[in-house]
Design a protein that fits this description.
The chain is mainly alpha-helical and 310 residues long. It is 50% helix and 6% strand. The relative contact order is 0.15.
Amino acid sequence: MPLNATDRVFPNKTTSATQGMIRWDSVKSLWLFAMIAGGIAALTLTPSWSGALVFIITSAITICAGHSVGMHRLLIHRSFKTPKWLEHGLVWLGTLVGMAGPFGMIRAHDMRDWHQRQIVCPPHPSHGAGFWRDAWWQMHCRFDLDHPPRLKIEPGIADDPFYQWMERHWMAQQLLVAIPLFAFGGIGWVLWGICLRVAVSLIGHWMVGHFAHKTGHQGWHIKGLPVQGYNLSGIGLITFGENWHANHHAFPHSANLGVEEGQLDPGFWFIKTLEWLGLADAILGPKDRPEREGLARLTPQHHGHPFQPI
């Protein structure tokens, strides 16, 4: 059957979206195990209120400004514009989350998105396995296709020297934070602000992705596709808006993920703050691009009133 293409992923005549093998990714797996070990050491060997505060502050900055805004909405989806120096800074903060460099994040996101846009999607990119198996697959393994599609990252990103440098040394970026943490708070702050933060961020990212493809409120449905997104209510603040995944499937270009009344989206608040400061523009909303093919409204909010993006 013919395969769908996306903005960056292009299948050819030999491409298969299902034929491949799940393999242990030693680098990703050992990296996470090391961060978990350091996180346990933080909690058991160096417990402190100051360490906990370092963990909270560094987690909020790297997940909100870095991962959600810089990596996801800006670098991957280009849902708003900033000066290049600020884009670099936000993406650097996203790299500090500890998942991958900028190209690795684009590759992981866009390949998963490409898989989920096919008529048949295997269990790895669809989060189709059970809880524990999916945890192992997503955080410790990779899915290698026998005949993969071509991934093309656009000029301006692929040829950016700063992004190329970050991609080569994405793990080492933690040192730029670890050194001042050690200088001001010793090894305890390093364990709290690096190891525990990265471990919680990676596990939390997987858990949101797992449940956001399993259950929750689904205000939108993409007809003809087996993989759907779901909104996970009640965790908008701690996920910085990344929990509104049904909305994101419906409007992947939108900088605003909490598109309906009452859906908290701190990531979008941050983008609007940048706009107020004159540092962001061309902010896309759900109505600023053609409607996704097959998009259907399921359970309207506001007691049956038509959808009105906020």
